[in-house]
Amino acid sequence: MKKAGGHRNFGYGKQMEWAGKQALRDQYGNGHYGTVTGHTERWRRFVTWCRDERGICDARAVDSDVVQDYGQSLRDKVDAGMSPAYAQNLLSSVNVVLEAMRDDRQIRVAPVEFVGQRSRIRTEQPAGLDQKVVRQCADQLRQNGHERVAATVEVARALGLRLKEASLLNARVALGQVKRHGAVNITAGTKGGRGNRVDRWVPVSGAAIGCLVRAARAQGSGRNLIPSHLTWKQWYSHIHHVWASVRDEFGLKKIHDLRAAYACERYKQLTGSVAPVMASRQLADRNTDRAARQTIAQELGHARIEAIASYIGGAR
Question: Would you kindly state where each structural domain of the chain is located, as residue ranges?
Fold first, then answer.
C-alpha cells in the first residue's frame, strides 16, 4: 500500500522493481494476477535499464526524457530484430506502472509512435544541422567549465556517433587514423559489441578534424572523454544534465538528434540533393538514394538499411 508520495518510489518501497509490483496490486486489486504478473515482468526490464544506463534506482527520478530514451533504446532493438509488438508492450507497461505509482499521466509516451514500425520514418527536420550552431553551443559549454561535455557533443555531431560511442572514442588514436586513412574506425561503445567484429570507418572532414583536436585536448592523458573518476552511468547522467542546461538557448534538442543531422548532411554530400525529410519528398533518383542509404547505414553502425529512414526520412 502506498504510504507517501515524498518517500522513495512514491512510498511503495525501497526497491524500484518491488515498488512497481505493489503499485500494480493497488491499481488492480485481487483477481488480476495475470495482468499484474505481465506488467511486472516488463517493468523489470525497464528497472534494469534505468539502473544500468542511467544509474536510477528511484522511480521519482524518472521523467519524460528518461522514458523517451528508453523508447529510443527499444526502437534500436526493433531495428535489430525485436518484435515491434513486444517493444510496444514493454513501453506500455512502463506507462501503466508509472501511472499507478505517480497517480497521474504526466510522463506517458505513445508506444506506437516510438516502436510501432520496424523503422520509424522521420518527418521532422533534426536540430543541429548547422554545425556552426553546435560549435557555438560547445563553446558556451567550455566557458561554463564543461570541456569534456563540449568535446563529446561536437564529436557526436561531426561523426554521427551515439553518445556512448562519442564518449568512449580515443581522440588521439582517431587523429592518427585520420592521418593514415582519412577516416576513423568506430569500435568502442557500439550497439551489441559490433565494433569488435565489424569495421566501421567514418570519413573525417576538415571541420571534424578540428573537433577531434579539441577532443584530444579535453581527453588529456586519458583513453577517452569520460573522466577517470566517473563510471559510464555517472557520466551519462552528468552529460544529460549539463546538455539540458544550454541546448534550448541554441535551438537544439536531444543529443541523439545530432546523429540525424549528420545523416542528413551526409545524404546531401552523397547525392547532391537534400534529405527527404528536408524536402518532404525524395529528390534523388532511386539508385542514388539507395546507395546513399547503404553508405550512411554503414557509417552509423546499422545492420539494416531500413533503419536510416528514422534519420533522413522515407524513400518515396
Answer: 8-115, 131-312
Which are the contacts of 290, defined by CB distance < 8 A and separation ≥ 6? 305, 315
- When the pLDDT of each residue in the chain is averaged and rounded to a whole number, the result is 89
3-state secondary structure labels for all residues of the chain: CCCCCCCHHHHCCCCHHHHHHHHHHHHHCCCCHHHHHHHHHHHHHHHHHHHHHHCCCCHHHCCHHHHHHHHHHHHHHHHCCCCHHHHHHHHHHHHHHHHHHHCCCCCCCCHHHHHCCCCCCCCCCCCCCCHHHHHHHHHHHHHCCCHHHHHHHHHHHHHCCCHHHHHHCCHHHHHHHHHHHCEEECCCCCHHHHHHCCCCEEECCHHHHHHHHHHHHHHCCCCCCCCCCCCHHHHHHHHHHHHHCCHHHHCCCCCHHHHHHHHHHHHHHHHCCCCHHHHCCCCCCHHHHHHHHHHHHHHHCCCCHHHHHHHHCCCC
Looking up cell 567549465 gives 145
CA dist 184 and 111 (Å) reads: 35
- One-letter amino acid at 87 equals A
Distance CA 215, CA 210 (A): 9
What radius of gyration, in Å, describes the C-alpha atoms of the chain? 21
Beta-bridge partners for 201: 185
pLDDT tens readout for residues 233-291: 889 889 989 999 999 999 999 898 999 999 999 999 999 999 999 998 999 999 999 99
Assigned fold of 131-312: hpI Integrase; Chain A (1.10.443)
Q: What is this structure's pTM? A: 0.69
User: 9-40: b or e for each residue (b if 16 or more CB lie within 10 Å)?
Assistant: bbbbbeebbebbbbbbbebeeeeeeeebeebb
